[in-house]
Amino acid sequence: MYKLLRKRVLGSHKKQITTVAGWFPTHKQGRVKALLETMARKPGVPVTMYGGGHRNNVQLVAFEPAMQFADRCGADTEWIPDP
């Protein structure tokens, strides 16, 4: 969530799951992909996934719900400016 917020993956900005996983060390990339897919299916998590095949895309639903979710999870969002 924190990285998606920092890189402003919301609105018309979207990223492929493989791109987002590439922001993490190699040994964590599989876990990141699985986590994104799980988060996108859970109600109340401000992440949405669309597309099919190898082009699964993710994006944040909206800035404020994503910030609140990240805060609840303990992320340091103090330095993330409002859009």
What do you see in this structure?
It is globular and about 35 Å long. A hairpin with a 6-residue loop joins strand 2 (about 45-50) and strand 3. The model has no long low-confidence stretch (mean pLDDT about 90). With about 80 residues, it is an alpha+beta fold. Strands 1-3-2 form a three-stranded antiparallel β-sheet. It has helices at about 1-5, 15-20, 30-40, 65-70; strands spanning about 15, 45-50, 55-60.
| Shape designation | globular
Low-confidence stretches: none
> Rg to the nearest angstrom?
12 Å
SS summary, helix count: 4
The helicity comes to 25-40%
Straight-line N-to-C gap: 15 Å
Structural class: alpha+beta
Instruction: Tell me the total number of β-strands.
Output: 3
N-to-C series of helices and strands:
HEHHEEH
How much beta, percentage-wise? 5-15%
Give the mean pLDDT: 91
Biggest β-sheet description: 3 strands, antiparallel
Give, in spatial order, the strands making up the sheet with the most strands: 1-3-2
Compact summary:
This protein has 4 helices and 3 strands. The chain has 83 residues and is of the alpha+beta class. Strand 2 and strand 3 form a beta hairpin.
What order do the helices and strands come in, and which of them pair?
Elements (H helix, E strand, L loop, with lengths): L1 H5 L8 E2 H5 L7 H13 L5 E4 L6 E4 L2 H10 L11
Antiparallel strand pairs: 1-3, 2-3
Give keywords.
alpha+beta; 83 residues; three-stranded antiparallel sheet; globular
